[in-house]
Design a protein that fits this description.
Layout lengths: L1 E7 L3 E8 L5 E8 L6 H19 L6 E5 L2 E2 L6 E2 L11 H9 L3 E5 H12 L10 E7 L3 E7 L2 E2 L31 H4 L1 H12 L5 H9 L4 H25 L3 E5 L11 H10 L36
Parallel strand pairs: 1-4, 4-7, 8-11
Antiparallel strand pairs: 1-2, 2-3, 5-6, 8-9, 9-10
Helix pairs in contact: 5-7, 6-7, 7-8
The protein binds zinc ion.
Length: 307
């Protein structure tokens, strides 16, 4: 018995087939999304990938789970808030079931990531964790909230999302039509844009980080400072509300070691300055479980390098 899952990203689509009992990965493949070619093309890429994987596995899926950006609105059954904007307004679940001729379960990718990590990944080392917040920092910024092992989907399906909280007044215009969203400040592309604005030179985020660590580029250090300070602000404002037991960070930006050292200090500075260790934080334990991110269950890791 095998379990099939697909992670639909803005740049690539990944399919993983797991052994349903051991949860070990039987097969894993990815192909480019080529989102610029439109909604119909994205669907045909999904179908093509399933065909390719089925050849190696020796069978077609009986059903499939699909992690997508954005949410399927319960009332209208149409997609919303996808950063791959051509998917918005589309009846994606219905269209996929018609195309693939099998039952499809569709859920927000950050929710899939958070639930997988809470139940099968990082959360295994924190069995008493009541509140687990899984966050994605990569091409986009998202999140999923798991309370007592269940996803908090929320009234509009945006539970756990923090990428479109306003972080910078009058900041960059976001695709969601607001200005200065978290995503426009600390996502990978946003940080690369900030560097380019300062220097006129386009660099990949990992190069910017390397230059900062080598103390060889003052502008790279400026961008890293911008990341750390805003990371502290953005996270702590949510932490103060949900008081998580465990935060798991995924995504290309989430691979930056500094977030777990200096970034963690920034968060602590912000949320602990409200008093002398308020009791609600007395038993707070943190496990930002970076090591698990090397083997995410459904490929929810967005790699800046492969963008
Ligand atoms: Zn936004």
């Amino acid at each position: 018995m095998k379990t099939w899952g697909i992670d639909l990203g803005g740049t690539k689509i990944e399919c993983a087939v797991l052994d349903a009992e051991t949860l070990s990965v039987v097969e894993r493949q990815r192909i480019p999304t080529e989102a610029g070619k439109g909604y119909g093309h994205i669907l045909s890429q999904i179908s093509k990938l399933i065909g390719q994987v089925a050849q190696n596995v020796g069978e077609m899926p009986a059903r499939i789970g699909l992690a997508t950006p954005g949410v399927l609105q319960p009332e209208t059954q149409t997609m919303k808030n996808c950063n791959t904007t051509c998917m918005n307004g589309r009846r994606m679940l219905e269209d996929l079931e018609e195309l693939l001729k099998i039952p499809v379960r569709l859920a927000n990718d950050a929710n899939c990531f958070a639930l997988a990590e809470a139940l099968m990944g990082a959360g295994k080392d924190f069995p008493g964790a009541e509140v687990v917040w899984g966050i994605i920092m990569g091409t986009g910024v998202g999140g999923g909230l798991v309370v007592n092992q269940k996803i908090i989907n929320g009234h509009h399906g945006i539970g756990g999302e923090w990428g479109h909280n306003i972080l910078e007044d009058g900041g960059e215009l976001c695709y969601c039509n607001k200005q200065g969203c978290v995503e426009t400040v600390i996502s990978g592309p946003a940080l690369e844009r900030a560097y380019e604005k300062l220097t006129g030179t386009a660099l990949k985020l990992n190069e910017i980080i390397d230059r900062h660590l080598a103390s060889s580029d003052v502008h790279a250090s400026e961008v890293v400072e911008r990341l750390l300070e805003n990371y502290g602000k953005a996270l702590s404002s949510v932490i103060n509300i949900i008081d998580p037991s465990l935060i798991v960070i995924g995504g290309g930006v989430g691979n930056i070691d500094l977030l777990y050292t200096e970034g963690y200090e920034r968060i602590k500075n912000i949320f602990l300055t409200t008093g002398n260790s308020p009791p609600q934080y007395a038993n707070l334990f943190w496990g930002i479980a970076q090591e698990y991110l090397e083997q995410p269950y459904f490929g929810t890791k967005y790699s800046i390098n492969n963008r």
